[in-house]
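Request:
Um, any thoughts?
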Amino acid sequence: MSYQSLLVSRENKIETITVNRPEKLNALNRATIIELSQALNAANSDNDVQVVILTGAGTKAFVAGADIAEFASYSSKEGEELSRNGHQSLFDLAENLSKPVIAAVNGFALGGGLELAMSCHIRVASDNARMGLPEVSLGVIPGYGGTQRLPRLVGRGKANEMIFTAGMMKADEALNYGLVNYVVSQEDLISTCVKIAQKITKNSPMAIAKTIKTINASYQEGLNGFDVEIKEFGKCFSTDDFKEGTTAFLEKRKPAFTGK
């Protein structure tokens, strides 16, 4: 599939999706959100992909927010639909993808850009990264999950401060607060993400998919994460990956997982 605003490449079961709008600091417009949704869905259904790395073109920005010009004249109803559609088509999709998504945060990740990074399962930032949710400076609130995911990652008090002040957090502070997993140089950003992805690809795709489902369950209203864990743990015993993993361990060899 070809895209207008994305670059997609793949090597050794690791797919890299790059938002390619450097002239707009990779800002998210409706077309780019649709393409990201299509690319993630395609990766999720492709057995040759085990991990996705998501990043932005250039060195200035991962995604520097939403394209404000698109929604500046929206009505209240249109704004609500914009938020709901974004949640369903991209941000919730990334969070619940059955394959790990690693955000390579290069430069600015603001507004929708930080919300996109927070939807990913793992975040690695370049040392020049700046992260924040500046929506209140525009008379609006974060609308793509920022008010929900940021407190889970950095704590309620720090999230309140970041959103209320519309301030930006530097990479080292983001690391201290657990907003990102690692901070590395711009030059080492993608290679660090690839190293993490390579470690993931050695393990059972089936078990990882169930792990994502189980971890996410603890944040979903009406679900008991412990109950989901018990059920998914039991389901593993009837899979080919479980049989292969335990057999390989007993035979003292490396497993050859199929994801089934």
About this structure: The two ends are 26 Å apart (CA to CA). DSSP finds eleven helices and ten strands in the chain.
